[in-house]
Amino acid sequence: MAALSEEQQMIKDQAVAWVKEQAPLTTFRAMRDQGTELGFFPETWSAMTELGWSGMLVPEAYGGAGLGYQTLGLVLEQLGRNLVPSPLFASSVLGASALMQFGSDEQKQRLLPSIADGSRLMVVAMDEGPRFNPASVATRLLGSPDSLILTGEKCFVMEGMAASDFLVVALIENDAGDPSLGLVRVSADAPGIHRKPVKTMDSRGYANVSFDQVAVNGLDVLIGEGNIEKLFDVAGVTLSAEMLGSAAAAFDMTLEYLKTRKQFGQVIGGFQALGHRAASLYSEMELTRSCVEAALAALDQDRADVAELASLAKGKTSEFLHEMSSQLIQIHGGIGMTDEFDAGFYLKRARVVEAAFGNAAYHRDRFATASGF
């Protein structure tokens, strides 16, 4: 684990204590059982905003703390440990990052403060199919600067039912008429927007959203410099930090069971095969942690190899969380298959997030390409 500054250690300790006391797994279970359409409890989000987490990435000039991705990763990891559902990732990470990367000074001044205080939930709508494929976008922004129309459909939009605003990945034509990927902000209650909740195995608040001839103000087209793939890198790396927390919690649950479950007169962790399996999982977990920390640091430093490290982190974390969640079930045996036991929550969450923003196979290929293979 990377050495932490005094401020980072304080924030980590705060997150550890809050998650343990205010967001136990019983809270997630209650949310799942109630079937809330939002996919989270509003009071949980209010508590997180009071802690200042919603403004961690936003620069101080726009009402945030400007703490960077490495510090944010400490919080995301703790939230991942208890599968805490909230719009932090969708709005305060992706929404804020998109605005900071592509927004004009006027757009940042107008929108970032309300993201920082948690009152505005601005989520990115990007996927149009069952697989992550940023090169396949059919949503288009057409018309003249005085009369812009957005048309298209997006699926599996994170926190789509709770969003107050959408940042829509769309094809936008330049002055020469050539289309390229860009972002368009629209209010979630604008005429022509229709959203439908989607049930997923991790019980979060996803939605399918259609944009039917939605009028767009020219001031809400984000035309900042940069490659939109950088936003996908941010998504993959920060989600990996949360996934690392889930994997670490699954490992701790497994290790505790190995230490306490007895068979044939001894704890099962004393059997060589299971002891070796635990040691291998721990080694893989620490290797995964190193990949995630390196990618978070690369984002903060805006390094040239961000894409390479982002794919390394997301690919490795997807691979390890898949294996760790499976071992959590297998080592616990029959009880691991029951809904009364929490292990199933981790496996279900793992299967969703390991595919989000590119699965392990996608990122292995992307890493190889970025590395020159």
Describe what this molecule looks like in 3D.
The protein is α+β, with helices and mostly antiparallel strands and 373 residues long. It folds into 3 domains: 6-120, Acyl-CoA dehydrogenase/oxidase, N-terminal domain (Butyryl-Coa Dehydrogenase, subunit A, domain 1), CATH 1.10.540.10; 124-222, Butyryl-CoA Dehydrogenase, subunit A, domain 2, CATH 2.40.110; 229-370, Butyryl-CoA Dehydrogenase, subunit A, domain 3, CATH 1.20.140. The protein is built from 11 helices and 10 strands. It has helices spanning 6-22, 25-34, 42-50, 69-81, 88-102, 105-116, 229-260, 272-301, 306-332, 343-353, 360-370, and strands spanning 122-125, 140-144, 147-157, 165-173, 179-187, 193-198, 206-216, 221-222, 262-263, 266-267. Strands 1, 2, 3, 4, 5, 6, 7 and 8 form an 8-stranded mixed beta sheet that branches. The longest helix has 32 residues, at 229-260. The two termini are 30 Å apart. The model has no long low-confidence stretch (mean pLDDT 95).
Number of helices, where a helix is a run of at least 4 consecutive DSSP H or I residues: 11
Structurally, the number of domains stands at: 3
CATH-derived topology of the largest domain = Butyryl-CoA Dehydrogenase, subunit A, domain 3
Q: What structural class do the secondary elements suggest?
A: alpha+beta
Largest sheet: 8 strands, mixed
Low-confidence stretches: none
